[in-house]
Amino acid sequence: MPGPALVASVLALAMAPSPAFDHSAFDLLLRRHVAEGLVDYDAFARSRDFRAYLEGLASARPEGLPEPERLAFWINAYNAWTIELINAHEERESIRNINKTLGLLPLKGPWSEKMVRAAGRTLSLDHVEHEIIRKQFDEPRIHFALVCAALGCPPLRSEAYTGERLEEQLQEQARRFLRDSPLKNRVDVERETVWASPILTWYEGDFGGDHASLGRFLARYWPEGPERELLLAGEFRLRKTAYDWTLNSVEKGPSPAAR
Question: What is residue 66's predicted lDDT score, i.e. its pLDDT?
Answer without folding.
Answer: 97
